[in-house]
Amino acid sequence: MTTTTSTPKSLAAFASPALGVAHPSVSCLIKRSLDILGSCVGLFVLAIMLVPIAIAIKIESPGPVFYSQLRHGLHGQQFRIWKFRSMVQNADELKTLVKNEVQGQIFKNENDPRITRVGQFLRRTSLDEFPQFWNVLRGDMSLVGTRPPTPDEVAKYEEHHWERLNVKPGITGQWQVSGRSSIKDFEEVVKLDLLYQERWHPFYDVQLLFKTVLHLLSRSDAY
Fold first, then answer.
1. Residue-level pLDDT at 7
2. Rounded CA gap, 136 and 198, in Å?
3. Cα(147)–Cα(73) distance, integer angstroms
4. What gap in Å lies between CA 196 and CA 169, rounded to an integer?
5. Which residue from 55, 80, 79, 76 is spatially nearest to 65, judged by alpha carbons?
6. Where does residue 97 rank: exposed (0-12), middle (13-18), buried (19+ CB within 10 A)?
7. Predicted model pTM
8. pLDDT digits (tens, 9 = 90+) for 93-111
9. What is the structure's pLDDT at 176?
10. How big, in percent rounded to 5, are the helix, strand and coil portions of the chain?
11. Which residues pair with residue 72 across a beta bridge?
12. Out of 73, 107, 111, 141, which residue is the most buried by the measure of CB atoms under 10 Å away?
């Protein structure tokens, strides 16, 4: 399902002074080269998995194979993110009926009834996120960064939250390897995002990528 939800108000209406100079990682050629190489490998794997995943999604739930949604990236700029659809077709309309189990400007529910059985498998293995390698190749995202927020989340940001958008959003990041779905407070997510910015260097990205692979193999902290 393709979502065309627009920003609740213009970006300028709620942008913060904390949204300042881009982090050094944004202009790092080593990081960008790693993103291009990694996204090409990811898209190759995606091409291999595309048909069986598409068939599985279609058999269980009517609707499109891919799901797209507007997100905010570097300096709050909007882009359209792509994933394999892991929920029922009208999931966005049903969101208000599902309890948010996380505090702050983020939405999570461990037993979200909108998620299909195929979707549960895709999320546990993070296969639903493989189409995002296209976003990485385009430059909207990086392999490693912060979780890209939705427009309704950004509309509720306080000033210090904007600092997390001084880097490109990533498929994985400090939050994902530090607990991911077990973290129930958005302020903890923000602290981890800022910790990533503080610790960052190109080889730190490589470390986080290896940690991400270990998390995927254990299939822990994901829903």
1. 38
2. 22
3. 9
4. 12
5. 55
6. exposed
7. 0.85
8. 888 888 887 877 788 888 8
9. 84
10. 55, 10, 35
11. 78
12. 141
